[in-house]
Amino acid sequence: MTMMRDFICLHYMVNKNDNNFWIDLQNVEIPDTLKIKLELWKNRFPIKDDFSETEFYLFYDQHWSSVLSAMNIPNRDNIRKEIESFSDRDINYIRKNVQNFVDLTKKEEKNTINHKEYLTKIRLDNRVKR
Q: Which domain holds residue 2?
């Protein structure tokens, strides 16, 4: 699937050159599908409609946004200007949804354990079963 390939390719678009792997990777052609999306995302974050070619979503628009943000690809000034052009009703709707997402994330974080704790729990559970 092109979406998965593009998501993986995006992860390797870094400015590293400390070994042959990264140097060789700089010569790999970026797929056209990703090039087109990257042009779009310079001025806005990904939205679900950007991935309409499939009903199967392994990576959602939020995943793409996280990677793009870490790579400083979106032009934040352009995005800020776009948001400022929204009506007060739209801005309030966005704020409400963002706050709901933040609240949900905080709630989920309270119920999660880190990777090391998870592995320790599995090991302990396996010892008890034996």
A: 1-85
